[in-house]
Amino acid sequence: MAEELAERLGRRLGMREGDAEQQQQQQQDAEPTPVPPGSPAVRAVGSEGSPGGGRRLFSPAAEFREFSRRQLRDMERLFRQYDAGKDGFIDLMELKLMMEKLGAPQTHLGLKNMIKEVDEDLDSKLSFREFLLIFRKAAAGELQEDSGLHALARLSEIDVSTEGVKGAKSFFEAKAQAVTEGSRFEEEIRAEQEEKRRQAEEMKQRKAAFKELQSAFAQ
């Protein structure tokens, strides 16, 4: 009897341990996949849709299901390329340089209107989510053909799958050109920053020389 009772207890304990392991595994499976830090996808998109006004992370794949993962990666790469400040936004000046590089320069007012059309949080710059809205509107035919946003979407997005081998060749040629232009763009930014540092250093030296001259006259 004692052996039979011990056997029953052992089976019950085993079942409980198995259930606990199964629940733990289900909880782990339910947890969202972590997003790499530093990605523009890791952005709080405000309290809309969040109970108690909390902030939630933006998931491009979840919200923009009409785009493939490769398309989203290409759009993120383009966004990062022209986010010269690396702050997760494209501001007015960065958008100006971007449109110039794409061969569709815009007036100051035109650039402001481009941002305004998708600037949902009214901060006068483009977050990655708002950048993706441009392509959503373009795909839905909601952009005017003569608008700056239409030009941006048309000049920066090439679909390989619908153009066959010839289109694929053009796609990769365009990609190579985009990489070259991106490098030139970064070089120009670095050159501007270096020029500002040089001017600041010259100003500092002139002030120091002026102070020395003042001291000499005061003696």
From TrEMBL:
Q: What keywords tag this UniProt record?
A: Calcium, Metal-binding, Repeat
Q: Which residues form a coiled coil?
A: none
- Mind telling me which Pfam families this protein's record contains? AIF-1
Identify the SUPFAM superfamilies for this entry: EF-hand
Q: Which domain of life is it from?
A: Eukaryota
**What GO molecular function annotation could you give as one example from this UniProt entry?**
calcium ion binding
Q: Name it.
A: EF-hand domain family member D2
Q: What organism does the UniProt record list as the source?
A: Pavo cristatus
Phylogenetic placement of the source organism = Eukaryota, Metazoa, Chordata, Craniata, Vertebrata
